[in-house]
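pls design
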């Protein structure tokens, strides 16, 4: 016996919203590290990204710490021999309303998706302390049935435990997102239907049906698993979900 016909897992950053990191968090944090260390902004950004990636790739590591930007930036500052005073959590909370935005008619799409027999669940690799303030500021929180983050479920999207018991509560599980690894490859290994919204599409695919786009997409050699469907816009999502349910 299942609780839902369909559970729809939806990514946040780059899929339905833009958070304040690029607009204000990184300029403040990296600016302070540049001023104290004399390193270039590009070099410091690369150090932060490399530390984040190394933590995610460490299967024995803590998935929460792998996405904890406060701890990551403090670690980079220590390597540079400086002390960082800017706090990522505080910056996000302060600027969530003024420097975040919704993408691609997301509120209207989410309202259209809500229906009896469906559950809408946030599935984000960002920690709750960074994501929930932005969801709240954008008025999106109430449109979801649950919010899954590494610090609420002790995993990343590559870990089956991240999704809890939600896949078992529905006849079908769908994943919607913009990143191939987190939103296609890993959820595909968990048996989900995969609705990919890549950053850019070849122009010749735009007129096609989302299912046909997925069949014709020129996947790279490191993209071994095809998506179920490829979205050019979130506005295609409600009709596509209805088709998949049919």
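designed seq:
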């Amino acid at each position: 016996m299942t609780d839902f016909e369909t559970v729809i897992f939806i990514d946040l950053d780059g899929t339905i919203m833009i958070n304040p990191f690029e607009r204000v968090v990184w300029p403040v944090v990296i600016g302070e590290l540049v001023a104290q260390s004399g390193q270039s902004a590009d070099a410091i950004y690369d150090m932060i990204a490399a530390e984040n990636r190394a933590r995610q790739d460490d299967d024995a590591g803590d998935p929460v710490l792998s996405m904890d930007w406060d701890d990551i930036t403090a670690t980079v500052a220590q390597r540079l021999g400086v002390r960082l005073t800017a706090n990522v959590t505080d910056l996000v909370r302060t600027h969530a309303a003024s420097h975040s935005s919704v993408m691609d008619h997301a509120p209207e799409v989410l309202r259209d998706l809500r229906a009896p027999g469906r559950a809408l669940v946030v599935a984000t690799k960002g920690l709750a302390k960074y994501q929930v303030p932005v969801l709240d500021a954008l008025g999106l929180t109430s449109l979801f049935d649950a919010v899954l983050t590494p610090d609420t479920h002790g995993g990343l999207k590559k870990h089956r435990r991240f999704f809890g018991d939600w896949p078992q509560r529905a006849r079908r599980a769908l994943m919607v997102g913009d990143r191939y690894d987190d939103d296609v490859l890993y959820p595909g290994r968990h048996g989900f239907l995969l609705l990919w919204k890549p950053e850019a599409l070849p122009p010749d695919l735009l007129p096609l049906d989302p299912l046909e786009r997925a069949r014709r997409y020129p996947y790279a050699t490191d993209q071994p698993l095809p998506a179920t469907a490829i979205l050019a816009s979130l506005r295609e999502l409600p009709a596509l979900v209805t088709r998949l349910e049919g």
